[in-house]
């Protein structure tokens, strides 16, 4: 027999901010990727995660998935949906995802206020 539990949120928690915000450049690039993908890939969603690797211990992972896992966080902004792996959620809270396009490299950049240190090349970080 299961029991029911009633939960009430405090008024300050009702207006919860999104754990991840996307810059307009990131939104534009994600829309371009969606438009230029094959028909079967148009139903996939970008998923952001954290993997243990690199000099500082953690690195971001980006992958296309068909369906979200049970506890993945869904972030929708300006018509773009991104999933956050449930294991990475606490690490990414308050992060801004940007798209950088330069002469030598083009990449997504994460401006994460939770980072305590990073390696010299910028590929891995410490929380």
UniProtKB/TrEMBL annotation:
GO cellular component, one term: mitochondrion
Record GO terms (molecular function): 2 iron, 2 sulfur cluster binding
Residue ranges constituting the Core domain according to the UniProt record: 20-123
Pfam family, one: Fe-S_biosyn
Domain of life: Eukaryota
One GO-annotated biological process of the protein: iron-sulfur cluster assembly
PANTHER family on file: IRON-SULFUR CLUSTER ASSEMBLY 1 HOMOLOG, MITOCHONDRIAL, IRON-SULFUR CLUSTER ASSEMBLY PROTEIN
Function in brief: Involved in the assembly of mitochondrial and cytoplasmic iron-sulfur proteins. Probably involved in the binding of an intermediate of Fe/S cluster assembly.
Similarity remark: Belongs to the HesB/IscA family.
Protein name: Iron-sulfur assembly protein 1
């Amino acid at each position: 027999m299961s029991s029911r539990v009633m939960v009430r949120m405090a008024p300050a928690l009702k207006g919860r901010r999104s754990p991840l915000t996307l810059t307009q450049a990131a939104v534009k690039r994600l829309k371009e990727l969606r438009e230029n993908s094959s028909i079967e890939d148009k139903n996939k969603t970008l998923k952001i995660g954290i993997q243990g690797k690199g000099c500082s211990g953690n690195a971001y992972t980006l992958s296309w998935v068909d369906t979200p896992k049970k506890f993945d966080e869904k972030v929708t902004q300006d018509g773009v949906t991104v999933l956050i792996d449930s294991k990475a959620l606490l690490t990414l809270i308050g992060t801004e995802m940007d798209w950088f396009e330069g002469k030598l490299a083009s990449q997504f950049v994460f401006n994460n206020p939770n980072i305590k240190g990073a390696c010299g090349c910028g590929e891995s970080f410490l929380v």
